[in-house]
Specification:
about 130 residues; mainly alpha; 2 domains; 4 helices; about 0% strand; RNA-directed DNA polymerase activity
């Protein structure tokens, strides 16, 4: 039939004239294309017949790009803790040549985690107590 990327936008029910025009277009197209064909053939082509006049009348729906959700400090801290734990396990299992590189990465994670923890602590101290 048609792909998911070509969706027609829904119109409000209050635009009665547009819906009446669309209905008449669809009826004419169905009568002209299907005529006296079998029920199976009618069902197979019905979606395409209805879709094209809708596409001509209303156009296609533009996809909106979704922004990634803003992650809170708590989520970032939890993620960094997991990464640090995973990195420690890798360091223990790594050869002596790999250990130095993994330690550098672990120290960077530790520095980011410490900075976020300090910022969160400062925010909590600055909040007025109830």
């Amino acid at each position: 039939m048609f792909g998911k990327d070509r969706r027609t936008p829904g119109k409000t029910a209050s635009s009665r004239k547009q819906w009446e025009d669309l209905d008449s277009k669809i009826v004419l197209k169905i009568d002209s294309l299907l005529g006296k064909s079998t029920l199976e053939h009618k069902l197979a082509t019905f979606g395409d017949i209805v879709y094209q006049p809708c596409l001509d009348t209303f156009g296609t729906k533009q996809h909106q790009t979704k922004c990634p959700p803003q992650r809170s400090r708590g989520c970032k801290n939890g993620h960094l803790r997991k990464q640090k734990r995973k990195m420690k396990k890798q360091i223990r299992a790594a050869s002596s040549q790999e250990t130095n590189g993994l330690l550098v990465i672990w120290r960077q994670l530790k520095a980011r985690h410490s900075a976020l923890s300090r910022a969160e602590s400062a925010r909590k101290k600055a909040q007025p107590k109830e």
